[in-house]
């Protein structure tokens, strides 16, 4: 804590002495009276001093996500309360934001006045990065009413003092964090359903409700109506986890891999919340549970599927973290061929990739050739101002154009757009092209 007096009234004191001296020299009472005006300012400055606030100002820090996913935006609120009996006319505050967390919106700095018994808030947002991030103390500076003195101190905020960003195996983003996605898809086989498929000869045991009674009345022949069967859709979320994607727009921003993990987690959460069959594959990294390379979690709806998928996503995020002992490969090798043998022919694919090279195009072409519906969700980390980012952005634009030419739906995600909007576009082609 420090106390500092600002010498802003020295000029007034000098003016007073000069006018008083001239008044005495010239024996002019008017100048002597005029000399008293600056004296009033000097006296006011001396009478008003900044007071220590360590015992009267409390600070509380809250966040809207205590355990965010890597790449998720977290809102932070500082609440400053003046518990004293006198107002604080000039309070300046700077929150101790963790060095590794970029400020995504607003500012952790603020200037305000707080009446006695009143409160003020400072709101800003950070982008989560994998790991544990500790907030520092809150720097507070108060000034006197005359701004002639200031008091600076560091206060410890109550509430949240650490932000942990990880992918917990025992949790899943539910409630408002889920995305409502597709439900069922029609098949080419006949059976129970709503849409007419074929008619066939009656077989003992066929439901009475599916007998074609009109044909029986007309021709005396028992036939059974088959309808096009619907089955729960199977979706495989395929994450491009190659090491070449561990890049970011700036050193203090999340990497493309972290953003991809966040998007994949939100998509998986939305699919599983509606009891759909969903699987996960990851190009460039092995499965932490089975050791299979590439990582592969077969479609399912239960807790085991959820747990294994989260473990894979956590491993991908770990590989992108600086100093991690988990590594991913730069070359995908035979990953695509191995996944082709594992993924059902009727499964939909959601490919999550920043599209920083032409590999996603080759990947999509192979799966489109096998008849899969493919959607590409592409976080954009190339929209910077450096020459390198400009070139990368041009190359990426060309790659996305070629992806769309394959017939795949491509959602180019500007991270400033809420992910709920972007993911809903990914599962609604009409929105994706809007």
Automatic annotation (TrEMBL):
InterPro entries reported for this sequence: DUF11_rpt, DUF58, Ig-like_fold, OmcB-like_DUF11
A Pfam family: DUF58
Top-level taxonomic group: Archaea
Ranges of residues in domain DUF11: 57-122
Domain DUF58: residue ranges: 199-376
NCBIfam families to which the protein is assigned, alphabetical: B_ant_repeat (TIGR01451)
Protein name (database record): DUF58 domain-containing protein
Organism of provenance: Natronoglomus mannanivorans
